[in-house]
Design a protein that fits this description.
It holds the Pfam family DNA_photolyase. The protein is α/β, with parallel strands linked by helices and 469 residues long. It has 19 helices and five strands. A five-stranded parallel β-sheet has the order 3-2-1-4-5, with helices on both faces. Helix 1 links the parallel strand 1 (2-7) and strand 2 (29-35). Helix 10 packs antiparallel against helix 11 (266-288), helix 13 packs across helix 14 (342-355) and helix 15 packs antiparallel against helix 16 (376-386). The termini are far apart. The protein binds flavin-adenine dinucleotide. Residues 227, 235-239, 242-243, 275-276, 278-279, 282, 342, 345-346, 349, 367, 371, 373-375, 378-379, 381-383, 386 line the site of flavin-adenine dinucleotide.
Length: 469
C-alpha cells in the first residue's frame, strides 16, 4: 500500500499539490522522475534546460530523502515508454495510488490519459491535480463560461479570483519516516548536459526563494520603469525556476501579497504580478486551445501566409549576424547564456517573422533549443503574439523598427557593446546604426534586408490575407 508521486514539471517540495496529497495518508510514499531523453530531444529541449532539470531533479531527490521519501529515476526514451516504466515501478513497489500535477501539452495529456487507463486496469488509482498556475485552468472564464482569448479581461477575472479565494500555499510535508539515501542521476549519462552554458541561476528550491525574496525586497519597486531596458538587469530572472516548477506561480503571487505596499513599490509590484498573470494566460490558452501546441496558429486564417523559405537569412538570425545591432546582441545573449531579455525576445521574434518574413514556428523551435527557461505555453504565446497569428496578438501593421527599439531601450548602447564586440569601439548613437558613417566596422555584416521595404512587404502580405478572408 504505497503512494507514488510522479514529479514532472514541478520539481519542488513546497506548494506541491500532488506531494502534499500523497503525504496526507499514513502509508509510505515514494517518488519518481522519468528521464525521457528522446522525448526531450523531440521537444527541442536546450542543453541549458537539460542541465537545470537534471541538477534540480538531483536536488529534489536529496530534499525528499531527508523526508524519508525515496526518489526513483526511471529511464524511458519517449512518453510511450514512460508509461511502461511507471507501470513496472508500481508493480515492483506495490504502489496503490499515483499522484501527479497536470501538464497541458497535447503529448503530455495523451500520455497521462493512457497511463491512467492502463493503471486502472491494474487497480492502481490515479489522482491528478491542477497545480501549474496561480489560478487553476478552467477557473478563469467569461460571463458566458468561455475561455478568454484577450489578456486584459482575462487578467481582471484572474485577479478577482485570487482576491476572492486567497489560495493558501501547500506547506512542505512533514517527514514520512527516517531519512533514506538519496538516489542521483549521473549527468555524464545525459545527452546535452555537458554542452550547457554556465548555470544562470543557483541550484535548489532555497536558492529560488532567496532570489524571489531579494527581488521583492527592492528591485521590484523599479520594475515598471526599468524592466524594458536589457542593460539594467532589472527583471527577476525567476523564469528558469518557474518554467521547471522549482517555484510556483502561486508562490510568486503569495510572496508579492506579503510585501507591505508603499507609494514607492506599489506600481512595480502590480506590474510584476501582471507578468505572473501573463504566464497563467498562456497556460490557460494551451489548455483550452490544444491546437497551439501542435504547430497550429491560434488564428487559423494566418496559416495561409506564404512565409519566405530563406535558410540563409534564418542562419544569420540564429547566429546574430543580421546587421541590426540590437537583434544581433540579443541573439548572441541567447546563444551564450541560454536566456534573453523579454523586450529583446519581442524585437528578435518580430524581426524574424515580419522583416525576414520567416515562419514563426522556426523561431519558436530555435528559442526552445537554446532557452534555459523554455516553456511551451509562454514561448508559443510570445511567438504568436509577435507574428500576429496569436490570441492577443500585436496588430499586423504595428511592426517594431528594431533600430528605433534599440535606441529607445538601450539608449547608451551598453547592451549592444556587451554582446557585439565588433561594435564596442563605436561611440554614441553610431552603435545603433553602424552603416551611417559609410564604412562598417571590421567583421560586422551588412543588413540582410531593408527595414522599411521589408516592413511594407509584410503589411501587404497580411493585408492580402485579410482581403481573401
Ligand atoms: P520577469 O519580468 O521578472 O517576470 C516574472 C515572471 O513572469 C517570469 O519569470 C515569467 O514566468 C512570467 N512572465 C513574464 N513575462 C511573460 C510573458 N510575456 N509571457 C509569459 N510569462 C511571462 N517565458 C518563459 O518562461 N519561457 C519561454 O520559453 C518564453 N519564451 C518567450 C518567447 C517570446 C517570443 C516572447 C516575446 C516571450 C517569451 N517568454 C518566455 C516570456 C518572457 O520573455 C520571459 O518569461 C521573461 O523574459 C523571463 O524573465 P524574468 O524571469 O526576469 O521575468
Amino acid at each position: 500500500m504505497t503512494h507514488l508521486v510522479w514529479f514532472r514539471n514541478d520539481l519542488r517540495t513546497a506548494d506541491n499539490a500532488a506531494l502534499t496529497a500523497a503525504c496526507q495518508s499514513d502509508q509510505p510514499v515514494i517518488a519518481c522522475f522519468v528521464l525521457a531523453q528522446e522525448q526531450w530531444r523531440m521537444h527541442d529541449w536546450s542543453p541549458a534546460r537539460i542541465r537545470l532539470v537534471i541538477d534540480h531533479a538531483n536536488a529534489l531527490a536529496e530534499a525528499l530523502a531527508k523526508l524519508g521519501i525515496a526518489m526513483h529515476f526511471l529511464e524511458a526514451q519517449r512518453f510511450d515508454d514512460s508509461q511502461d516504466a511507471l507501470i513496472r515501478l508500481c508493480r515492483d513497489q506495490s504502489v496503490t495510488t499515483v499522484h501527479f500535477n497536470e501538464e497541458y501539452g497535447v503529448n503530455e495529456r495523451r500520455r497521462d490519459k493512457q497511463l491512467a487507463q492502463r493503471l486502472g486496469e491494474t487497480d492502481v488509482t490515479v489522482h491528478k491535480y491542477r497545480d501549474q498556475c496561480a489560478v487553476p485552468v478552467g477557473q478563469v472564464l467569461t460571463g458566458q463560461n468561455q475561455p478568454y482569448s484577450v489578456f486584459t479581461p482575462f487578467s481582471r477575472t484572474w485577479r478577482r479570483w485570487l482576491d476572492d479565494q486567497q489560495p493558501t500555499l501547500y506547506p512542505q510535508p512533514a517527514a514520512k519516516g527516517d531519512p533514506v539515501t538519496p538516489s542521483r542521476i549521473d549527468p555524464t549519462t545525459i545527452a546535452g548536459y555537458d554542452q550547457a552554458p554556465p548555470p544562470l541561476v543557483a541550484t535548489g528550491e532555497a536558492a529560488a526563494h532567496d532570489r524571489l525574496e531579494e527581488f521583492l525586497a527592492d528591485p521590484v519597486a523599479h520594475y515598471k520603469q526599468q524592466r524594458d531596458f536589457p542593460a539594467k538587469d532589472a527583471t527577476s530572472l525567476l523564469s528558469p525556476y518557474l518554467a521547471s516548477g522549482i517555484l510556483s506561480g502561486r508562490q510568486c503571487w503569495a510572496a508579492a501579497q506579503q510585501v507591505p505596499a508603499t507609494a514607492a513599490n506599489q506600481e512595480g509590484l502590480a506590474c510584476w504580478v501582471n507578468e505572473i498573470a501573463w504566464r497563467d494566460f498562456y497556460i490557460h490558452i494551451l489548455y483550452h486551445f490544444p491546437r497551439v501546441s501542435m504547430n497550429r496558429a491560434f488564428k487559423p486564417e494566418t496559416e495561409a501566409l506564404d512565409w519566405n523559405p530563406s535558410t540563409e537569412h534564418f542562419e544569420a538570425w540564429k547566429e546574430g549576424r543580421t546587421g541590426v545591432p540590437i537583434v544581433d546582441a540579443a541573439m548572441r545573449q541567447l546563444n551564450q547564456t541560454g536566456w534573453m531579455h523579454n523586450r529583446l525576445r519581442m524585437i528578435t521574434a518580430m524581426y524574424l517573422s515580419k522583416n525576414l518574413f520567416i515562419d514563426w514556428r522556426l523561431g519558436e523551435a530555435y528559442f526552445m533549443s537554446q532557452l534555459v527557461d523554455g516553456f511551451l505555453a509562454s514561448n508559443n504565446g510570445g511567438w504568436q503574439w509577435s507574428a500576429s497569428t496569436g490570441t492577443d496578438a500585436a496588430p499586423y501593421f504595428r511592426i517594431f523598427n528594431p533600430v528605433t527599439q534599440g535606441e529607445r531601450f538601450d539608449p547608451n548602447g551598453d547592451f549592444i557593446r556587451r554582446y557585439v564586440p565588433e561594435l564596442a569601439a563605436l561611440e554614441g548613437d553610431a552603435v545603433h546604426q553602424p552603416w551611417r558613417s559609410g564604412k562598417l566596422p571590421k567583421g560586422y555584416p551588412r543588413q540582410l534586408v531593408d527595414l522599411k521595404e521589408s516592413r511594407k512587404e509584410a503589411i501587404a502580405r497580411f493585408q492580402a490575407l485579410k482581403e481573401e478572408n
